[in-house]
## 1
Amino acid sequence: MALTRRFQRLPRLGIAVGLTAIIGAGAVALQNGRKLGYDDTPFLPGGKWRVHDGARPQPRIIDPGTSSTPDTPGRPPSDAVVLFDGKDLSHWTTDGNAPPRWKVEQGYMEIARPGGTLVSKEEFGDCQLHLEFATPNPPVGVDQGRGNSGVLLMGRYEVQILDSYENQTYPDGQCAALYAQYPPLVNASRKPGEWQTYDIIFTAPRFDGDQLVSPAYQTIFHNGVLVHNHTALIGAMTHRALAKYTPHPPKGPLALQDHGNPIRFRNIWVRELKGYDEP
């Protein structure tokens, strides 16, 4: 209570000075070009920076973009690699490096016949992926035959796309499943034809020669709902088999699977993830 009364007596323009005096010795002023933070605090474990170290690199400033609406895709963050902005397929090839044959219209791309799995020209390791998709309306088929596709990180680690609105299948193959490994924590699917979102945080596996040092991890939000929380993958995508790891380079392409259903995609972007103090 005494501290609260002391704050109340501080002049409006002298709050910063008052706070410094109250906090105690070692505080460094925040104005007039002086150093930020503190220079007498303990060092953080395993690093060169002190607690509240004002000399530590400032986080990069970015434009965070905007959120999507049902009718309009949002604007990506300013530091994102935009793989599809509704205009063309210039960032993509298909299986066998053939020119992409998917249909592009009205701001989205759609799996067409003949199609083929799309593969990004850019490659990524640790990353944040955002994409939006819509399954066909009216729906056709049941089980795995209804709105089936998938997004594969590094071309290997699949997050299933499926029309799972009032359509049951094996749980590790439904929408937002880590295919053949883990079902989503909940089924957050929207109705057929409605735009849905994936926001995926992917940590690539680490290898030392032929040995796996650390598995891949995925944290996934489906339509804004957490469905995987830093889940360790068993290995690369499989069907009717147990997943396993095979050594591969630290970066790989993104792939959008053609499973014979006319799935639509829009607003696909990727942010490469770096450490706290990396530029």
## 2
Amino acid sequence: MVAGFALDLDHLLATPMFDPNRCSINFHPLHTYWAIGIYALLLWPARTRVWAIGFLVHMVLDYLECLPLGVYLP
């Protein structure tokens, strides 16, 4: 689960690094829909399942942060 925090390293690429009014889903490279799809595929191999769960939990929590901003993703 701690590996899910590694996904926030892509926030270092953004300018400004932290913007409280920005939804990180589909903004940062490791938070795109394509990346989320890869994280879902990582659920199948037993060796990567724990990593995938950590990544997907991270994405759900980031999505929940978007809701108060009025950003409703498909």
